[in-house]
Design brief:
The chain is an alpha+beta fold. It has 3 helices and 9 strands. The protein has a 7-stranded antiparallel beta sheet with strand order 1-9-8-5-4-3-2. Strands 6-7 form a two-stranded antiparallel sheet. The longest helix is centred in the C-terminal third of the chain and has 23 residues. The radius of gyration is 21 Å and the shape is globular. The N and C termini lie far apart (76 Å).
Length: 187
């Protein structure tokens, strides 16, 4: 019985420590905006995978490598790049799905005695879905993204590489894109 109590005591101490020492958690950003424009018009803009620079304010240019691969050059300092792959376009459902397949490294730091890259966005395994549906007086656009932070090791986490940093960055990207899309579509 005494051994059993020691085992239980040890387990109760270890469980909180194990739960604190985990890698990144999957994050999700889901934003929706209503646009006073016909769904067909909005969908025509969104499904053109090579035209993100026409409506997203953070994108300076888009280079299409092939029908399903685009390289985004951002308008920020140093003009970092993001390469994305179109996974699916569904005209009937007015939905497209894409993922990030590569990003430029904007800097590297030494953290915990290892070289740690900072990518264009502090995320990894990023996948997004954009849908358009008809609503009264126009369209509803939903942009949903799922991802992990780019720093995959256990805590501590370098500055700017936390789950919260990844979430806030993607939320900012999605919100800015949807708000500017609304302005352009309602002109």
């Amino acid at each position: 019985m005494k051994k059993f109590l020691h085992f239980i005591s040890a387990a109760l101490i270890a469980v909180p420590m194990i739960s604190m020492a985990h890698g990144p958690s999957r994050q999700q950003v889901k934003e929706t905006i209503t646009i006073n424009a016909a769904p067909e018009k909005v969908w025509a803009t969104l499904k053109d995978f090579g035209s993100l620079d026409k409506w997203h304010p953070a994108v300076a240019s888009v280079e299409m490598k092939d029908d399903k691969t685009r390289v985004l050059t951002l308008a920020s300092d140093g003009h970092p790049t993001i390469t994305e792959e179109l996974l699916k376009t569904d005209d009937e459902k007015m939905m497209l799905t894409y993922k990030i397949i590569d990003m430029s490294v904007v800097k590297t730091i030494t953290f915990n005695s290892k070289n740690t890259p900072y990518f264009t966005l502090p995320v990894s395994t990023y996948k997004s879905w954009i849908t358009v549906k008809a609503v009264d007086n126009g369209s509803e656009v939903q942009w949903k993204s799922k991802f992990y932070r780019s720093f995959m090791d256990n805590p501590p986490v370098p500055e700017g590489q936390s789950d919260k940093d990844a979430y806030n960055t993607i939320k900012g990207v999605v919100t800015a894109g949807l708000e500017n899309l609304k302005v352009i579509m309602e002109k």
